[in-house]
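Researcher: Next entry: DUF3575 domain-containing protein (Spirosoma rhododendri).
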Amino acid sequence: MRIRYLTALLTGLCLQTALGQDSTLTYNHPSRFVLKLSPLAVLDQDATLQAGLEYRTGRRTSVQAELGYGGKNLSPFQSDIKKFADAEVWRGRAEVRFYLGRYRTNRKQGIAIRSDFPLGNYWAVEGLFKQTNVTTAEYIGQPDPVTRVSTIIYPHNIRRYVAGSHIKFGRQFAFYDPHRRVFSRALLDVYWGVGVRLITNQGADQLTVETCGCGFGRSFTRRGITPAPSLSLGLKLGFAL
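Model: Predicted structure:
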C-alpha cells in the first residue's frame, strides 16, 4: 500500500514539473491556409481590390501570394490615371516568410501558443509586379465650328510595368475571445519593408507630351528602365480557413 501511494506521489510531482517547464498551449486547427484582404490597397493612387492566400509550409515558414485588380475610378483620391480616357491596374505579390519563434500571448508568465496557421513576428522576402494600362486620345484636325470637337481621334495605348523586391518585417496577430477563452480565426497582419523597383513603359514613343500630373517614377512617357527606391507599409485582414 505504501509503495502504491509513493508511486502516485512521484507521478504527480513529475507531471507538475513537466507542466511547469512547458508553457506552450496547443490550439489545434484543421487547416494551414489563411485567406487575406488588403483594405489599404484601395487607398493607393493605383488602387486595386486585392486578396491573397498564405500557406504554412513548415514549423516557422510559410508562403503567401496576392493578386489585385482596379479600374480607372476606383481610387477615392485624384489619381493621375483618372486623366486618361481609360485605365486599369493589375498587381501581384509573392513572398516567403520566416517566423522568429512561438507566438507570445503573455511574456510575464511565459505563455505561448502553437497553432496550425502561422502567428507571431516574422521577416520575409517579397517579389512584386504591377502593370498599369492606360488609353489616351489625341484629337487631330480642326475642331468643328458647332461642336468644337475634332473629327479624328487617334488613341494611344501605353503599359507601365513595375517589378521589384522588398525585405519585410511584421507581426501576425490572432484575436482572442475572452468569453470562450479561445483564439478566433480572425487575424491581423501588420508589416513594413524596404526595397527597390524597376519601372519601364511600353508604347511611350506614341506620345510627345506628358498627359498626366505624374510624380517620381510615374511617368508614362519616360523610355528605358528607371530604378527607384521602394517602401512597403500596410496591414492585412486574415481569416484562417
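Model: Note for the record: The chain has one domain: 22-240.
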